Q: What sequence folds into this?
């Protein structure tokens, strides 16, 4: 039984106005049970107000083999950060 | 509470709270037996959560029963220092777990009953019972949903799961009638507007069960009856003695222990 159950990724929104965040994964026979299992496993200490479950197989992930090509080129391009602007003193809450 | 646990000298409200508390306590113990034995780790957690909800309800109800009784008995005294004949739970909750389908049938039967009861106790004239019901009604709504989801999947699943789910329903069905048997305690407490005559809950229970069984392609058992229980007066099945011994062993071996 257990080996047949697909894996689901669980996303929890902890408060209104925040984004859903990945909390972990679990096994469940279908989407409805995955949502219930997620409720029991990840929100039993009041961690959330909303849940998403996504079949783990539906997630397309970047490959560790592509890590250099994907991410390293961004490392030395400091001009992509908005750090070269003078912030006028009148601007608050930035 | 010695010979007759429903003696006239005990306020009916104390007995009423004790009965409902014992239902929750004993079923909580049965659910705890599933932990590490469920089909999946996720289900271990789900059943433990449900059991702990029930244990929380039991604590409130036993504490209150002790207060109303007025003999100075605490929740621990009532849970761990009574003998089998003094427990007032229905037989449905004490029956052995059986396989997962048997336990899900029990969860469906009991939580459907309990939800109908709690929905009425929310407007009890007794503030403690009304407060407990207000909190517990949300918990039990989930318990019923959890059980119904499993009964649907196993009933309307494979040939094997269907057969085992039907066997689970058949196994627990004989205990159903006892849930709805009222006596003078229920009459007295219902008369004060504090409690509910359990017989009134039957039509709602039947309607929900028929809908779930029908969708699950399961057959409502006919003719599977047994002389209704006696659990509400402290008369139990063989399984109860073993359950009480295991539940109380720790407390009785180490009196007053805490952690």
A:
């Amino acid at each position: 039984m257990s080996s047949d159950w697909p894996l689901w990724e669980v996303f929890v929104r902890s408060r209104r106005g925040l984004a859903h965040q990945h909390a972990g994964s679990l096994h469940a026979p279908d989407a409805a049970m995955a949502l219930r299992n997620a409720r029991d496993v990840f929100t039993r200490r009041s961690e959330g107000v909303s849940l998403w479950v996504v079949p783990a197989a539906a997630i397309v992930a970047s490959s560790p083999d592509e890590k250099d090509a994907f991410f390293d080129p961004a490392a030395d391009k400091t001009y992509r950060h908005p750090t070269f602007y003078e912030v006028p003193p009148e601007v608050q809450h930035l | 509470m010695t010979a007759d646990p429903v003696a006239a000298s005990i306020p009916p409200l104390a007995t009423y709270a004790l009965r409902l508390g014992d239902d929750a306590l004993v079923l909580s113990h049965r659910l705890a037996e599933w932990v590490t034995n469920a089909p999946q780790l996720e289900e271990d957690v789900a059943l433990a959560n449900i059991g702990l909800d029930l244990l929380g309800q039991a604590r409130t109800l036993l504490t209150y029963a002790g207060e109303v009784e007025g003999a100075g008995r605490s929740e621990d005294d009532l849970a761990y220092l009574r003998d089998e004949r003094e427990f007032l739970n229905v037989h449905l909750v004490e029956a052995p777990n059986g396989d997962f389908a048997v336990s899900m049938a029990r969860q469906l039967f009991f939580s459907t009953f309990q939800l109908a009861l709690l929905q009425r106790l929310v407007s009890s004239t007794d503030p403690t019972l009304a407060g407990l019901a207000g909190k517990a009604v949300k918990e039990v709504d989930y318990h019923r949903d959890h059980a119904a989801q499993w009964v649907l999947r196993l009933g309307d699943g494979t040939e094997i799961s269907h057969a085992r789910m039907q066997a689970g329903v058949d196994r627990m069905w004989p205990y159903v009638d006892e849930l709805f048997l009222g006596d003078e305690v229920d009459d007295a407490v219902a008369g004060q507007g504090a409690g509910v005559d359990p017989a009134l809950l039957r039509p709602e229970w039947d309607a929900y069960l028929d809908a779930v069984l029908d969708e699950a392609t399961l057959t409502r058992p006919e003719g599977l009856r047994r002389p209704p229980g006696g659990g509400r007066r402290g008369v139990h099945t063989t399984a109860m003695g073993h359950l009480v011994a295991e539940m109380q062993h720790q407390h009785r071996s180490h009196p007053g222990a805490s952690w």
